[in-house]
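Hi support team,

I submitted a single chain yesterday and got back a structure, but I'm not sure I'm reading the token output correctly. Could someone confirm the output below corresponds to the sequence I sent? I've pasted both exactly as they appear in my results page.

Thanks,
R.
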Amino acid sequence: MAQDFERDLTHDSLSPEKIQAQIQRSKDRIMTAPVAILLCLDMSEMDTYPDEKRQQAERMMAVQSVAAVGVQLLLAAHAEGLGGVWACWPLFAQETIQKTLKLSEAWEPQAMFFIGYPLDIPQARERKPLKEITLFL
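Hi R., thanks for writing in. Yes, this is the structure output for that exact sequence:
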């Protein structure tokens, strides 16, 4: 993943120092997390349609399902007094991850979660008033 990340950051014209700092931060997260969980998308059991519009909608439903699982995972970890971080790096290195972990080609890495006991519990951010973020019709 570090090689994929370095390639992408180089294309983004970041300085070598910034590239190495970001790669090291990512490596540190992966290597120091007590638990790392990889969520994958598997379209093999989803419905198939003859038209592109419905097939894209089916894929979108699958992506949304994976995201919903990620939210539930973080909520469950929080309920147990654990902290969690959601990282989407796997989207940028799917083939590398599949090959390294010997995953089925049907399993498309989507997100990685790092779970553990937090060193510090940050203060909750102030919430926006409901009327600022909703529209009731």
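A quick pointer for reading it: Residues 52-79 form the longest helix (28 residues). Let us know if anything else looks off.

Best,
Support desk
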